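Dear support,

I submitted the protein below through the web form. The confirmation email said the job was done, but the results page showed an empty box. After a refresh the structure appeared. I'm attaching both so you can tell me whether what I see now is the final result or a partial one.
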Amino acid sequence: MQNRLLFLCSFLLLSASLSAQTFRELKTAAKKGNRNAQYNLGIRYYYGWEVAQDEGKAMEWYRKAAEQGHPMAQCSLGVCYERGRGVEQDYTQAVKWYRKAADQGYAVALMNLGRCYREGLGVLQDRSKALKYFHEATRKGSKAASELADELQNELSPEKEE
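What the results page shows now:
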């Protein structure tokens, strides 16, 4: 039993050490301009994984990756603007970043852009356009978008007479 406990403590210490080393390597790669590292660093700051949570720093790293065309970073930046996380809420900016990611075929961005059109967030409300984006996201494999499309289709369908 004592050997198991010693092994477990050693494993946990090693894991923490490797995690810190991995984070340092990730930050070094991000500073060198690696867009995947920048996006991953943004995630860590946004959720507080391996670092203190800091939505402002998350935004900085998401933006660096997004400006290099990283679709998930572009979508994450859109989410931050839509929710006002780490930045002042700005639906127009949210739509701008969702559109950049959607133009690359990123399903989550297509779905989020559809939500913006459905609700009129940062764009004129256009439920037909919303449905188009939901269907496109569904074709890219988004089950959530499929549900939103079904829901919106039911709203758009003429009411059945009783």
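Response: this is the final, complete result; the empty box was a page-load delay. Residues 7-18 have pLDDT under 50 and may be disordered.
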